[in-house]
Design goal:
By secondary structure, this protein is an alpha+beta fold. The chain has five helices and ten strands.
Length: 217
């Protein structure tokens, strides 16, 4: 009988605090509780962002008085909007219409120069487009047509504009140069330079876009 009682005692003995399985179980429980607390906190965390207190129209200067601060739960999407917790970023202008009460996207505001910029489409040699990327900085060179020469001849190229930005490229990049003498590229230029670029194109000049420093990405 003493042997059976000893075996029963061993079976019902409480686990010691230094039991490995007990420690691992407790650690898992604590990790689960901590993870759940962080998840709840992240869901409940709000971010202060700006919203339009009135309708903002393109070209209009945007001041803090035109906006209201709202606390929203956007999680990772908050980076797309102007953060009101970082202070006013400086002189901004509306680049597009922002409705009253609409959160203020970063892409909807920019500098005064961005307001004055315009997008112009220029024809270029299809072979030169392959080296360009959207957003690249380029210099616009134009070779004017030589009106006195016989046949299609051009004068030496002249710099028309520095640091224009490539806004759009032909969609079918692989087919460029096949059955086409030019490819249409959209470039962003300051408003005061628009007439010079358009005049060069309308007069039949040959336009070349030369990538600037780091212009090809």
């Amino acid at each position: 009988m003493s042997g059976e009682q000893g075996a029963t005692a061993r079976r019902v003995r409480r686990p010691a605090w230094n039991d490995t399985r007990l420690l691992v179980g407790l650690a898992l429980v604590l990790l689960s509780v901590a993870g759940g607390a962080r998840l709840v906190a992240s869901v409940q965390e709000s971010t202060p962002v700006y919203a339009a207190g009135q309708v903002l129209v393109p070209g209009e200067r945007v001041d803090p008085e035109d906006l209201v601060v709202v606390d929203v739960r956007l999680a990772e999407g908050a980076s797309r909007y102007v953060d009101a917790g970082q202070g006013w970023p400086g002189e901004l202008y509306a680049l597009r219409v922002v409705g009253e009460g609409e959160l203020l996207p970063r892409a909807a505001v920019g500098s005064e120069r961005q307001v004055r910029d315009r997008t112009v489409t220029v024809p270029v040699d299809p072979a030169t487009v392959e080296g360009l990327q959207q957003g690249a900085s380029v210099d616009i060179w134009v070779s004017a047509r030589d009106e006195e020469a016989v046949g299609e001849r051009y004068e030496a190229p002249a710099l028309v504009l520095q640091e224009a930005t490539v806004a759009g490229l032909p969609q079918e990049r692989g087919a460029l140069g096949v059955g086409s003498s030019s490819a249409a590229v959209q470039v962003v230029v300051p408003q005061e330079e628009v007439s010079a670029v358009i005049a060069a194109v309308d007069q039949g000049g040959k336009v070349t876009l030369v990538p600037g420093a780091g212009g090809t990405g």
